[in-house]
Amino acid sequence: MSGIAERLAALAEQTLEGRPLPLRIRAWDGSEAGPEGAPVVVLTGRQSLRRLLWKPGHLGLARAWVAGDLDLEGDLYEALDRLGHLLWHRDDQAGRRRRQSLPAALRALSALARPRQLRAGAQLLALAGPAGPPKPPPEETPTRRGPLHTLRRDSEAISHHYDVGNDFYSLVLGPSMVYSCAYWEDEAGTLEDAQRAKLDLICRKLQLRPGRRLLDVGCGWGSLVLHAVEEYGVRAVGITISEEQAGLARKRLAEAGLTDRAEIRVQDYREVTDGPYDAISSVGMAEHVGATRFRAYGEQLYGLLRPGGRLLNHQISRRPTTDAGRYRTDEFIDRYVFPDGELETIGSTVGLLERSGFEVRDVESIREHYALTLRAWVTNLQRHRAALDAFTTPGRVRVWHLYMAASALAFERNRIGVNQVLAVRTTDGGDSGMPRTRARWLGLPPHRARPAH
């Protein structure tokens, strides 16, 4: 009689449109099946199979991974990339990518398991053991009710993600404590160099200078506020709705002797009333706003700026959907990483900012930079794995490992992007206050054109 791995591989390949299994399987009985040399998916017990049968698709896989019912031997990036080829294919006629295969395959396996009279279903049920859906791992967010993006619900969602612990984030992010895409002027540089370059790029785009007033929306642990005050002489207010972030940000300001020039508040952007500001930065925060509230978000920030003031909106974007269906957030991300987070296309973001009153002056895609940043964070996580397990739960560390590695591949494969949008509130007379060339407002040497011949 064949082993469990061989039986599972044979059943799986029935649903993979004739394509071979991309990963090797090792089951709890020690049997293996699949291509030699490929990363090995380790099913540690019957519970792993039950998770996939009761919740086929991303969420079932994620729950098995987080709980430790499913493990991996080999390179996680390679394993996820191989799975990605099942999740996406390119339509030859339209040239567009569509989701397919793996979730459909798992759903098909699950459907086979339900009718007991089917031979394949009986085999799967026998392999999975006692029927019944397993409980989700404790790291999963509880069921959320009520309207999206109320002050209370947003506060709970932010707490789930950012209040994992400052010690945890300090090991993953490194000394910069910046939790957004870095700017890699040199791929051989360090993460700290790249994060400092990103903070400086934002300050230059906002044309910060001594005496100007900056509002940093979603200030995190205060790194941009510190940089802007120390290097550009501004007076700054940083707001966050994470108590843990605010506590550390205030401590860092105090240690730098900057409490007379900067303030950190636990405050939602909708509650800020003390404008006008000369500049507003929003870095990695707008993903939490929600599609239905984004225009109101833009109008709120517009109202807080003086005429001629600038907004730098740094935001992850999604690719446009390729069918008539509504875009849906990945279940794993929603349940374990960013509850209630929503991604929009860059076109939608620009359009909504314009309808909020802004003139959009510049859009810079830095997609490849985020892939490098995430790989650096994963390296930090792997290096400090034992300490991270002590600061939180091993399941939580597995969540962060999976989401960061998968996100790095998503940026590399152009499934998601990230953009810096520079917008301005013009004066009543239409004056933007912007220099005519990008080089001037970035503080770069002017371009010297060659004489025409």
TrEMBL record:
<keyword id="KW-0949">S-adenosyl-L-methionine</keyword>
<keyword id="KW-0489">Methyltransferase</keyword>
<feature type="region of interest" description="Disordered">
    <location>
        <begin position="429"/>
        <end position="453"/>
    </location>
</feature>
<dbReference type="GO" id="GO:0008610">
    <property type="term" value="P:lipid biosynthetic process"/>
</dbReference>
<comment type="similarity">
    <text>Belongs to the CFA/CMAS family.</text>
</comment>
<protein>
    <submittedName>
        <fullName>Class I SAM-dependent methyltransferase</fullName>
    </submittedName>
</protein>
<feature type="region of interest" description="Disordered">
    <location>
        <begin position="127"/>
        <end position="147"/>
    </location>
</feature>
<dbReference type="InterPro" id="IPR003333">
    <property type="entry name" value="CMAS"/>
</dbReference>
<dbReference type="GO" id="GO:0032259">
    <property type="term" value="P:methylation"/>
</dbReference>
<dbReference type="Pfam" id="PF02353">
    <property type="entry name" value="CMAS"/>
</dbReference>
<keyword id="KW-0808">Transferase</keyword>
<dbReference type="InterPro" id="IPR029063">
    <property type="entry name" value="SAM-dependent_MTases_sf"/>
</dbReference>
<keyword id="KW-0443">Lipid metabolism</keyword>
<dbReference type="GO" id="GO:0008168">
    <property type="term" value="F:methyltransferase activity"/>
</dbReference>
<dbReference type="InterPro" id="IPR050723">
    <property type="entry name" value="CFA/CMAS"/>
</dbReference>
